[in-house]
Write a structure and sequence with these properties.
Layout (H helix, E strand, L loop, with lengths): L3 E10 L2 E11 L4 E5 L6 H8 L7 E6 L2 E2 L4 H7 E4 L10 H12 L5 H7 L15 H13 L5 E5 L7 H17 L2 E6 L2 H7 L2 E6 L2 E6 L1 H8 L4 E6 L4 H9 L5 E5 L2 E5 L5 H8 L6 E7 L3 H9 L3
Parallel strand pairs: 3-8, 3-9, 6-7, 7-8
Antiparallel strand pairs: 1-2, 1-4, 4-5, 9-10, 11-13, 11-14, 12-13
Bound molecules: adenosine-5'-triphosphate.
Protein name: ABC transporter ATP-binding protein
Family: Belongs to the ABC transporter superfamily.
GO molecular function: ATP binding
């Protein structure tokens, strides 16, 4: 049984067709990235999965349960972001406790808040929180009760690069625990860094569903480059792999082939010199993920 199955999903708002015909399968245990330009229909799809919005036609099933007919059963197994708005007069701890009570979970709110980097503000009210802090708090709420499926709509919105990196770490940890993760984003490098597979939504339809590597191969697009140094140490290699956006770094002698977004290349070159190595050559064989994305969405 799949974690999430969308079949012929359609949604019209009056004359506006938000979803034309969405078919998508998210397998159990995978991290699935839901990509698409603004207005493609990502939030509408997620709202249907969470039963905030009813489809005009078609169905959404979560672990075999119909999202509309068996909303209760679905919600027991799902953690979602953003699921609730924040209440300015409540503390971070009270927000998380509220969700724990609603879900009948005995999770410790403080432990969850520490996990998302809010350990020092557990008793602060949300009205003083920045956008990024609010996003972290919502993530802590989504993690309550170890959900089997995490549904994250633009989880990195409002987060600085550190916050975005921590978000990726938590996605990986949740996945390692056994959770399936479904998240939408238009930040391609974020998706590439953590996802097993992606679905690309364009104009209310899924135009591609595959691993990014296979999509690349299918379109002939690649975004790798090779840096050759005089001496490649483990420290330098670890630093390269730590650069945000680096999806892959493979070694051949003193050359390292790195897959990353174009705008991270300078950071990769800096990282490879961490241990004092001298760069001998840089060979770029380029076609970025952005171009891959544009190939499928017609540049929208
Ligand atoms: N309540 C609504 N009433 C009318 N039109 C709507 C409504 N909600 C969404 N739409 C329209 O449906 C389409 C899909 O919107 P949706 O928010 O799902 O896209 P999205 O991919 O999440 O975009 P973004 O990345 O900008 O959040 C858009 O054309 C949007 O204007």
């Amino acid at each position: 049984m799949s974690a999430l199955e969308l079949r012929s999903l359609q949604k019209r708002y009056g004359d506006v067709v938000a979803l034309r015909d969405v078919d998508l399968t998210v397998r159990r245990g995978e991290v699935f990235g839901f990509l698409g330009p603004n207005g493609a229909g990502k939030s509408t799809t997620i709202d249907i999965v969470l039963d905030y919005v009813r489809p005009t036609d078609g169905s959404a099933r979560v672990f075999g349960h119909d999202a509309q007919e068996e909303g209760e059963r679905v919600r027991e197994r799902v953690g979602a972001l953003p699921d609730m708005r924040l209440f300015g007069h409540l503390t971070a701890r009270q927000h998380v406790q509220f969700v724990a009570d609603a879900k009948g979970s005995d999770d410790d709110p403080v432990a969850l808040l520490e996990r998302v980097g809010l350990g020092r503000v557990v008793d602060f009210t949300a009205d003083g929180f920045s956008t990024g802090m609010g996003q972290r708090l919502k993530l802590a709420m989504a993690l309550v009760g170890d959900p089997d499926l995490l549904v994250l709509d633009e989880p990195s919105a409002g987060l600085d690069p550190n916050g975005a990196r921590e978000m990726r770490r938590i996605v990986r940890e949740e996945n390692a625990r056994g959770a399936t993760v479904f998240f939408s984003s238009h930040i391609l490098e974020q998706v590439e860094a953590v996802c097993d597979r992606v679905g690309i939504l364009s104009d209310g339809e899924v135009v591609a569903e595959d691993s990014i590597d296979d999509l690349r191969e299918a379109t002939g697009a690649r975004s790798s480059f090779v840096v050759t140094v005089d001496d490649l140490s483990e420290v330098a290699l670890a630093a390269v792999r730590d650069v945000a956006g680096v999806a892959e770094a493979t070694v051949d002698g003193t050359s390292v082939t790195v897959t990353c977004p174009d705008d991270r290349k300078a950071a990769v070159v800096d990282a490879v010199r961490t241990d004092g190595a001298t760069v001998l050559d840089i060979d770029s064989e380029d076609a970025s993920l952005e171009r891959l994305f544009a190939t499928y969405t017609g540049g929208r």
